[in-house]
Design goal:
Helices cover 31% and strands 23% of the residues. The chain is α/β, with parallel strands linked by helices. The chain has two domains: 96 residues, 4-Layer Sandwich (Metallo-beta-lactamase, Chain A), CATH 3.60.15; 94 residues, 4-Layer Sandwich (Metallo-beta-lactamase, Chain A), CATH 3.60.15.10. A hairpin with a 4-residue loop joins β8 and β9. α5 runs antiparallel to α6. It is globular, with a radius of gyration of 16 Å. The relative contact order is 0.13.
Length: 194
Amino acid sequence: MYLVTNNGIVLFDSPWDTTQFQPLLDSIQYKHKQPVTLCIATHWHSDKTAGLEYYRQLGIKTYTTELTDEWSKKNGKPRAEFLMTKDTVFNVGNYTFETYYPGQAHTADNIVLWFAREKILYGGCLIKGADAENLGFLGDANKAEYESTLKRVKKKYRNPNYIIISHSDWNNINSLNHSIKMAKKLKRKIESKQ
């Protein structure tokens, strides 16, 4: 996802395919006649962080949380130039948005983004599509906490107009509720094995 402002483009997460780092920038520049000036990665997996070093070398300001930086370092992933020590509000051109760390779920460090004026929630990989059959890759997940984390997001950001997610269509506003149901089912499955 990216945000077009009157003061440059903000990129949320990076492609994981190295052959797409520059073509993405080129297509954004061609379409909007503005450069990408900022990139924020929402967790440490490659589909979020792979392009951070490349973009930093081009002078694009790159951001992650300190927790994401720890996990990136631990797993040999690219790291951002700037680290957020807490939930952060960004004012870029004519837009304001905030980051929020709701707790562990898809990964230990996953954050979401909220655009209050527009009531848009960017859930990244934390929230799955309304038609998803499962919560996706759970190899780095906190399965026991997933449901609670999603409920914190729902409580904090009520009635969004849109919920944009990473690996599915975002036209269905029920993606968060559906993800909560899947996480609840996953938790029950874990508890039944104990």
